[in-house]
Amino acid sequence: MFADLIRRLTAPAPEQMPDDDARLALGALLVRIARADGDYANVEKDTIQHVLSKRYGLDDASALLAECEALEAEAPDTVRFTRAIKDAVAYEDRLGVVASMWEVVLADGVREEHENQLMRLVPPMIGVEDQDSHAARRRIEDQRKG
Length: 146
Known about the structure:
Layout: H1 3-9, H2 19-35, H3 42-56, H4 62-74, H5 78-88, H6 91-107, H7 113-125, H8 130-145
Helix pairs in contact: 2-3, 2-4, 2-5, 2-6, 3-6, 6-7, 6-8
């Protein structure tokens, strides 16, 4: 179903993705983060739906989430997947995705080691500076406290 998108994502020199493809790729990355600890909890799914709804102006993101889950299951290893996103998605969008990744990681109130490892690896892999990732994490933590 997503073979063409995956082929384009993993091409030697991926082109800038159309909005629909970027939406799927970025959503699939959020699903990958949520599944990292082996417990894909409802609160994480709800958080991803909220992020997708807010980011893309959708009333209901359940269908988009289902597509993102399917793409994540078919997507290549995280290194190739993130490299493709880095090459094909604008920095501002990638920065927003890192903030969304932190929302998902922090959604269940527990930062598992697998999630921490991915959050140390993925932002630099998609070309987001460490300080930008840390700032995003602090903003999300502050929002959750307030």
